[in-house]
Amino acid sequence: MSRARRFKELLNAPEILVVPSAYDALSARVIDQAGFEAIHMTGSGSSASILGFPDLGFTQIPEMAEHAKNIVLCTNLPVICDADAGYGNAMNTWRTMREFERAGIVGFHLEDQVNPKRCGHLEGKRLISVEEMTGKIEACVDAREDPDFTLIARTDAREALGMDEAIRRAKIYLSAGADCIFLEAPLSVDELKRVRDEIDAPLLANMVEGGKTPWLTSSELEAIGYNVVIYPLSGWMAAASVLRQVMRELKETGTTQNYWKRMGLQMTFEELFEVFDYSRFAELEKRFVRGDE
Q1: pTM score, whole prediction
Q2: How do residues 266-283 score in pLDDT, each as one tens digit?
């Protein structure tokens, strides 16, 4: 079974699909080894990891496709990703589909913000017209080679135009060819429920720690009727937090010893390298790397 078909089956299963977000290949390996069934490549975390810049539309198609390819190559799990606003007009979006699909991505979410976009939980988002967004969706459908690729339409209309318009747009995007709806930043549980009540399609929930949407558990989201949930900040926020603490300790004391003694060493040197299957690669090296006789 292809990864794209596997993801589509998981999306349509009775249980909610919990998809943590990777910001690079290392975090993807950790997610894989934790036992999850799919991986989401975060746009905000990728911008932070690749460029050290905030999620304000700085990333472009080639670097994001390359980043996606590296994540896909380090796991056997299906990988979906954030395609932002398609990195331009409908023709740029057409290319985005081609590049991400060739990189091995099995689905992505595309949003109706003006390009360059901004994080969905920041203020000041601006929207394109419904007509322009439907053109982008139709371009994706045309460029898509695998019919199992999951096209997720995201609308950011809730903040600027209200729930009525967000739901109206979502329904139009489904008619244009989207497979799943991502209505960004509902402000209450009632709004989350309304999305489920009024949209007859698979739904994606976005859990952002400290964001605008209520911070619900996956079980609570499943009870409402959501099909998949992503966690775009969790991994890289945790990594940045721990790294900041370790670097502060090193700067102030000249060693990391006390930090790890105080916190308890969470991973040994050997365990770290096994995140990357070092023993398997060492065996491959013995089998294949040969010198001169």
Answers
A1: 0.94
A2: 788 888 888 888 899 999
Sequence-ordered list of residues with C-beta below 8 angstroms from that of 35, at least 6 positions apart, any chain: none
**Mean pLDDT of the region 225-231:** 98
Residue 292 pLDDT greater than 90, yes or no: no
Contacts (Cβ under 8 Å, ≥6 apart) of 135: 90
Nearest to 107 by CA among 132, 88, 82: 82
Task: Kindly report, as residue ranges, where domains of CATH 3.20.20.60 are found in the chain.
Answer: 3-239
What pLDDT is stored for residue 34 in this prediction?
Answer: 96
Instruction: Report how far residue 265's alpha carbon sits from residue 47's, in angstroms, rounded to the nearest whole number.
Output: 29
Q: What is the identity of the amino acid at 63? A: E
87: left (phi over 0), alpha (psi -120 to 50) or beta: left
Instruction: State which amino acid sits at residue 107.
Output: G
Domain covering 3-239: architecture: Alpha-Beta Barrel (3.20)
**Peptide bond between residue 14 and the one before it cis (omega within 30 degrees of 0):** no
| pLDDT tens-digit series, residues 73-104 | 999 999 999 999 999 999 999 999 999 999 99
Three-state DSSP string of the chain: CCHHHHHHHHHCCCCCEEEEEECCHHHHHHHHHCCCCCEEECHHHHHHHHCCCCCCCCCCHHHHHHHHHHHHHCCCCCEEEECCCCCCCHHHHHHHHHHHHHCCCCEEEEECECCCCCCCCCCCCCECCHHHHHHHHHHHHHHCCCCCCEEEEEECHHHHHCHHHHHHHHHHHHHHCCCEEEECCCCCHHHHHHHHHHCCCCEEEECCCCCCCCCCCHHHHHHHCCCEEEECCHHHHHHHHHHHHHHHHHHHHCCCHHHHHHHCCCCCHHHHHHCCCHHHHHHHHHHHCCCCC
- Model confidence over 57-68: pLDDT tens digits? 899 999 999 999
